[in-house]
Amino acid sequence: MQPVRAPLARAVVLACQCGSAKNAIWRRTAFRRFASSGSKLLTRPNTPKPLPYKPVGPKPQPGDPPAKVSSEPAGSSSKAQPVSELVRSRWFPLFGIGAATVCISYFLAAQAVHWNMEPVERYAPGLEPQAPTGRPSIQSPVEFDLHLDKSEWRLGITKLRRKLAAEARGHVLEVAVGTGRNLEFYDWAGITATPEEVKKRALEKLNKVRGDRSKLADLGADEVRSFTGIDISPPMLDIALRRARQVVPQMAGALPKRPLFSQLASPGQHGLDCIALRDNKLRVFTTDAQSTLPSPPTGDKYDTIIQTFGLCSVRDPTLLLAKMASVLEPETGRIILLEHGRSWWDMVNGLLDRSARGHFERFGCWWNRDIELIVRDAERRVPGLEVVKLERPGLLTMGTHVWIELRLRRAVAIPKVDDGPGKSGERRSPDHEEKPSGSWFGNVSGSSSVLSVGGKPLGPKEP
Q1: Which keywords accompany this UniProt record (predicted)?
Q2: Angular region, 252: left φ>0, alpha ψ -120 to 50, beta rest
Q3: Quick one: which of 46, 90, 116, 415 is 20 to 30 A from 15 by CA?
Q4: Can you tell me the distance from the alpha carbon of 341 to that of 378, in angstroms, rounded to the nearest whole number?
Q5: What residues contact 113, with CB distance under 8 A and at least 6 apart?
Q6: What pLDDT sits at residue 125?
Q7: What pLDDT, on a 0 to 100 scale, did the predictor assign at position 422?
Q8: Which of 383, 363, 357, 438 is nearest to 136 (CA)?
């Protein structure tokens, strides 16, 4: 056995030596090529795996016409399926679409019949089942104010507030100022300017008129000289004072960080609780606008009277307009109103009527009142009152928002009213209330509210 094992061992050793020698020779050759050419180190070739066989069509010849490109998606059959075959293969989704269409159509038809046949709660202005207060009953004033931020921006009301405040000039009265959502848009320079700023503004005006002092009065006629805000709710005025501290110049040092009207107010004009700032040029009163309106700091008439969304929140809106006219400067003065009420579309009016009670319970106002009817009634009943402009701005509001401007052709003498509408303006008994109409497609026949002061109705407007 010894002689056989020795040759086998020698053969194995020689084979290993030969393999290692071949590897060494191959490595030396690769390194030499890399050093001489500067290329990457050679590696053993990695042959790709064979791909599945795909038949290759004949190559196009120079004389062949161009191939047509198919517009059909890959995998689709060029043959059109017959309708019967399509119904058999896709009967379930087709049945679902048909059933959904029938259900939606039935629901819309039932709603239309219900809205047309069922009686709708609709009352003349001032004859609603509950007197409006203009104050939220379900939510707090803070929640009420926050709720309006996004909705007013979406509906373009913020833009209209800015336009409304830009029209203010002279002695300004804002009725139902609420939480003061118009305060940030007024030009306060004429009220809050320091003595140095007053001198600077006077010099600028003098330069504009080239030294002609007779024209200085015309330049100052367009600025706000005083501001008076009134509201019936002290909690709403707390928020208005907080907003005034933020947006009105020089108010941060005049009011505390958390002002409370009940703590800061003192008896003022007509015995009303009042906060007066900036030498009585900036005042806030708590009062019912239907009973008492304070006079301006100087004089007895206002140049501009502003109200936003207030005619829907008072017992007798026609009387409120008469009270505004009694403190307005004749001829040059303006009453500017931004209100919401009935639309020019009957479908929208039907929706307003059906949701009016729920809206009243939340916000304290009847938003389905016919504002144009109220204004025309006041124009007819208040001597000298005239509508200058009445338009419905904004497409998203579908005609429910109304911009109104009124002026007074001459002074109107209205006797003093201490208890709102007066004796003959009290609410009627339920037996005399207007009955709801049976169809929501009709229009309001007219206002049953009679404007009367001291038991005598105001006469018709003279030509």
Answers
A1: Membrane, Transmembrane, Transmembrane helix
A2: alpha
A3: 46
A4: 16
A5: none
A6: 82
A7: 38
A8: 363
Asked if residues 400 and 272 have their Cβ atoms less than 8 Å apart, the reply is no
Q: Which residues of the chain have pLDDT under 50?
A: 1-2, 4, 39, 41-42, 75-76, 415-463
pLDDT, tens digit, 9 for 90 and up, residues 160-215: 999 999 999 999 999 999 999 999 999 998 898 877 777 777 677 667 666 565 55
DSSP state of 60: P
pLDDT of residue 109: 79
pTM, full prediction: 0.65
Neighbouring C-alpha atoms within 13 Å toward the C-beta of 372: 14
Residue 414 pLDDT: 53
CA angle 303, 306, 311 (to 5 degrees): 135
CATH for 141-187+223-429, among 3.40.50.150, 3.10.20.600, 3.40.50.2300, 3.40.50.410? 3.40.50.150
- Here the tokens at position 49 are 């795996």
Distance CA(182)–CA(169), nearest Å, equals 14
Would you call 229 exposed, middle or buried from its count of C-beta atoms within 10 A (0-12, 13-18, 19+)?
buried
Q: Distances from the Cα of 74 to the Cαs of 77, 99, 140, in angstroms?
A: 9, 33, 63
DSSP strand pairing (456-457 vs 452-453): antiparallel
